[in-house]
Amino acid sequence: MTATAEASAPALHDALELVLADVTDQTPSIRSFTFRDPAGNGLPPYVPGSHVIVQCGDKANAYSLTGSGVLPDEYTISVLRVDDGGGGSATLHRLAPGARLTVSRPRSAFAPVATARHHLLIAAGIGITPMLSHMRAAAEWGHSASLLYSYRQGEGAHLDDVRELCGESLHECTDRSSFLAALAVRLGEQPLGTHLYVCGPQGFMDTVLHAASEAGWPASRLHSEPFGSADLDPGQPFSVRLSRSGTVVDVPSGTSLLEALEDSGLKVPFMCRQGVCGECVLPVLRGTPEHRDLYLSDAEKTANNSIMCCVSRSRDAGLEIDF
């Protein structure tokens, strides 16, 4: 996963100050970065599929960790360089070992289901990064897993890693037709109790999830990890009442609640603007949020008493927040 932010970022709370220990080219446009504690201490563990937010100058991005998460002494991420992007990937690509960066503690939004009989992992492009974490954990714990990996010829990141980890359970595709054929086979041959995980561009994930649904897979066994909120639909307009002042703020279609509050002259803490860091969470007093973030847990989303205002909206015409 790679989520981008384009605004000046405040300092990360309770973050780690780490040193860039190693840089490895995966492809001409994808580079891996390994961070360690400057004093050589171990780092906080994490569950497979977790991400961290890396602050680079005045930019902050969320990136998937590629390790298994067990007793880590280093964090490794892989970053696709987007020269005209607003998230700082180009700046990261210019860093050399020895650079000091602020890195958030790991956050889980794409963890494997412990009770799954088998894990079917499907990735495209840079979406391989959380799957690498899943595969490493599966190998360490002896869990059943297989990987369907789609990438452009000559642009497959971490190929040596996944080939060594997966062996015969890896299927590689370098064109759309062969991927669709392999997907149809994989969806039809999995044992009961299999959970499917997909990460890649939104169109790719939509294709996989639709095909799985058509093949009879229950929604509870489908899990996706989007790159960010860039592909979210503009949503319906709604209004928000601010309980402390009684002010009502209109949120038009295509405008986030965070943007609407800022346009009204209000200051809301934020970091990633992609629903992954948790910085802009606001308490909800009335109404039902339409949760689009990757930060709140399923239980927190069900409770409907908080909202990530950078990406989430309202299912009702009106919402009231404690602000």
Explain this structure to me?
By secondary structure, this protein is an alpha+beta fold. It has 7 helices and 20 strands. Strands 1, 2, 3, 4, 5, 6, 7 and 8 form an 8-stranded antiparallel β-sheet that branches. The chain has a 5-stranded parallel β-sheet with strand order 11-10-9-12-13, sandwiched between helices. Strands 15-14-20-16-18 form a 5-stranded mixed β-sheet. A hairpin with a 2-residue loop joins β4 (50-56) and β5 (59-64). 44% of the residues are buried.
Give a quick rundown of the structure:
With 323 residues, the protein is an alpha+beta fold. Helices cover 21% and strands 30% of the residues. Mean pLDDT is 89; it is low at 3-10.
Topology:
Layout: E1 2-3, E2 16-25, E3 30-36, E4 50-56, E5 59-64, E6 75-80, H1 89-93, E7 100-103, E8 107-108, E9 118-124, H2 128-141, E10 145-150, H3 159-166, E11 170-173, H4 176-189, E12 194-199, H5 202-214, E13 222-225, E14 238-242, E15 248-251, H6 257-263, E16 281-286, E17 289-290, H7 298-303, E18 306-308, E19 313-314, E20 318-321
Helix pairs in contact: 2-3
